[in-house]
Amino acid sequence: MKKLITVMCLLFTITATQAQKKKRNAKLVVEVDGVCMMCKKRIEKAALNTKGVKYANWNVTSHQLMLIMDERKTSEKIVCQNLANVGHDTKEFKASEEAYASLHPCCKYRDTEIIENHHKKE
Length: 122
What we know:
Largest sheet: 3 strands, antiparallel
Order of helices and strands: HEHEEHHH
Radius of gyration: 20 Å
Number of strands: 3
CATH topology: Alpha-Beta Plaits
Structural class: alpha+beta
Shape: elongated
Number of domains: 1
Distance between the termini: 71 Å
């Protein structure tokens, strides 16, 4: 009986450890606010400058940032914080007023007039 309990505990520990293994090429989608191609360039650059991010592609219309990253080196939280640091909001982090103010005038995605102007161009 004692051996059975020991074996079950060992199997549980191994299973729990494997479930927490971090992936080398994890795929992730993050929603990031922005309105134009300048935003796209800034968002992708901020993501790619995060250690462990291998691929970043932001879609202007859907606001979806597709990432491939090494979860052993970074996390979604770190990437989102870096995006907020350059002025772009995510669900987890809102850019500071200072970071948002540093954006180019056409990139002010919180301004409804700017958003409407970008939609007219499409």
